[in-house]
Amino acid sequence: MKNKDTKDLVMKDFEAYPDVAADLLNVFLHEGQQRVKQENLLAAPTETLYQGQEKLRNQLEDVGKYEMHSGRVRAMYLFANQSRVDSKMLFRKAGYVGGAYREQYKSRKNAFFPVIELVLYWGEERWNCRESLHELLHNRDASETLLKFTDNLKLHVFEMRNLSAETRRLFQSDMRIVVDYLAEGNGYCSDRKIVHKEALIKLLRVLSGDENVEDTLSMMQEMKTKEEDDVKVCELFEQYKRSGQEEERERSIERMILDNQEEHRTEETIIGKLVRWFSLTREQAKMYYDKYARVVV
């Protein structure tokens, strides 16, 4: 799987959790007030169709949620993840939101509801594009008369790496850990308890530039961390750091064994070096030798 595909999938999986989605909506739409309840959120379609030049084509939004109230849809929310600045994002939004309203028009039910899209921007470069259609078209010399009759579509962009401390404090889900980590870097530590451990670790890894996160579950097993465990951020980060140090130590042991073999050192000599240099017992050194030494013909 390509790095971009992996990153997109990891973000979608994390944001699809009802508590995380509700948290995003409450912070960005309601200034932290608990208006949207996670138990009222249902998965909504993320695919709509439009007429291309020759045939129907599909377009996919990242995450879609219905907010339900008394058995009816109160609102539909769409989440779009962006890693790079896109000056034409307004036109993409028109397709996504327009497609959702088209489905309401086609429906036999006489029930209409607002469709709201949130753009979650994860890039490091600041988002400096026009965020309303009028601004964009005005910058292209559209006259005031034409703009008067042009619907003013607007983007709602949230720069996840540049949220204020005041805004970050409003989050109550694992998203608080993500935005604090992005703001504070590797020195970040917290006593907050983690709910979605595997999903959180995957997201932090892809946001840090890791291209392969498929080994996250096995890494958690090596760290003796289970999804149901009661783990705090600092504890998990310390385990992760320790796991990385152990991996690097083992790679160093492997390199030493192979380098000494190339120099035609004997097994006994190599094991002796492992014992001295890495403070291993002879049994441990023999185990590593058997694991990494190449058969010399």
How would you sum up this structure in a few lines?
This protein is of the alpha/beta class and 297 residues long. It is 47% helix and 14% strand. The two termini are 38 Å apart.
Task: Outline the secondary-structure elements.
Layout (H helix, E strand, L loop, with lengths): L2 H13 L2 H13 L10 E3 L3 E5 L4 E5 L2 E7 L2 E11 L6 H18 L8 E7 L11 H6 L5 H5 L8 E3 L5 H4 L6 H10 L12 H11 L8 H7 L10 H30 L4 H12 L3 H11 L5
Parallel strand pairs: 5-6, 6-7
Antiparallel strand pairs: 1-4, 2-3, 4-5
Helix pairs in contact: 1-8, 10-11, 11-12
Q: How would you describe the overall organization of this protein?
A:
23% of the residues are buried. Among the domains are: 3-164, no CATH class; 248-292. It has a five-stranded mixed beta sheet, sandwiched between helices. The protein has a two-stranded antiparallel ribbon with strand order 2-3. The chain is elongated. The protein has twelve helices and seven strands. By secondary structure, the protein is an alpha/beta fold. It has helices at 3-15, 18-30, 89-106, 133-138, 144-148, 165-168, 175-184, 197-207, 216-222, 233-262, 267-278, 282-292; strands at residues 41-43, 47-51, 56-60, 63-69, 72-82, 115-121, 157-159. Helix content is 47%, strand content 14%.
Query: Helicity, in percent?
Result: 40-55%
Average predicted confidence as pLDDT? 86
Strand/helix succession = HHEEEEEHEHHEHHHHHHH
Unreliable residue stretches: none
The termini sit apart by 38 Å
Structural class: alpha/beta
Q: Which strand order spans the largest sheet, edge to edge or round the barrel?
A: 1-4-5-6-7
Instruction: Characterize the biggest β-sheet.
Output: 5 strands, mixed
Morphology call: elongated
Strand coverage percent: 5-15%
Number of helices: 12
Computed Rg:
26 Å
Number of strand segments: 7
